[in-house]
Amino acid sequence: MKINSAEIIISAAKPHQFPAGPFPEVALSGRSNVGKSSFINTMLARKGLARTSQRPGKTQTLNWYFINERFHFVDVPGYGYAKVSKSEREAWGRVMETYFQEREQLKGVVQLIDIRHKPTEDDVMMYDWLKHHEHPVLIVATKADKIPRGKWDKHVKQIKEHLELHTEDKIVVFSSETGQGKEKAWKEMSNLLFG
Ligand code: GTP
Ligand code: MG
């Protein structure tokens, strides 16, 4: 995919701020610190467009990126982040529910999982919930540069088994450091967006 333009258009804290319009979108979901913002920067070849951080839970809004004046990426705040109050967490939960239940432009969800570890309970819950709402899911097994290539297959198998990945959902081994998996991820995301 050749990227001609990419810009952040809104950081939305409330559903009424979600952008209207006909453009299809994919959402990026995953635990805090898994590499969602890094994934966006690598896919768009725009260093620093999506803010990355060593400190988990930095992204606290739904962030819309408008690409090639044709489609959107939506960076969703990382789940499994406990350092906010219970009421804040509940309010966020409702915003997220509205988004994933009602957003008609949403064509599929990229769920990022750290290739090094077996999926957490939160990962499994998120996947089940997305499938309950019948969203197509692309699993991106990220930080692949952190384990030897010879171990990728074993770790992919572990992720598939723990999630009980549906046969129609694909999995891509990815690294923001090396660009591993970038082309395959674009191919699968294009299928979700325009297929
Ligand atoms: P939140 O916005 O807090 O939910 O985090 P995030 O999922 O957006 O993660 P982010 O992209 O900010 O990355 C978190 C940390 O992991 C940063 O220090 C990144 O540099 C690092 N990181 C992300 N992807 C990779 C990768 O593929 N390989 C390696 N080695 N490090 C990565
Ligand atoms: Mg982020």
Explain how this protein is built.
- The chain has one domain (6-194): Rossmann fold (3-Layer(aba) Sandwich).
- It has a seven-stranded mixed beta sheet, with helices on both faces.
- The chain contains five helices and seven strands.
- With 195 residues, it is of the alpha/beta class.
- It has helices spanning 36-44, 86-102, 121-132, 152-163, 182-194, and strands spanning 6-12, 25-30, 62-67, 71-75, 106-114, 137-142, 170-173.
Enumerate the spans where pLDDT stays under 50 for 5 or more consecutive residues.
none
The third-level CATH topology is Rossmann fold
- CATH class, named Alpha Beta
Order of helices and strands: EEHEEHEHEHEH
Name of the CATH architecture: 3-Layer(aba) Sandwich
What hetero molecules are in the model? guanosine-5'-triphosphate, magnesium ion
Mean pLDDT: 92
Radius of gyration: 16 Å
CATH evolutionary superfamily: P-loop containing nucleotide triphosphate hydrolases
- Compute the number of structural domains: 1
Based on helices, strands and strand pairing, what is the structural class? Answer: alpha/beta
Function: Necessary for normal cell division and for the maintenance of normal septation.
Pfam family, one: MMR_HSR1
Domain EngB-type G: 22-195
Keywords: Cell cycle, Cell division, GTP-binding, Magnesium, Metal-binding, Nucleotide-binding, Septation
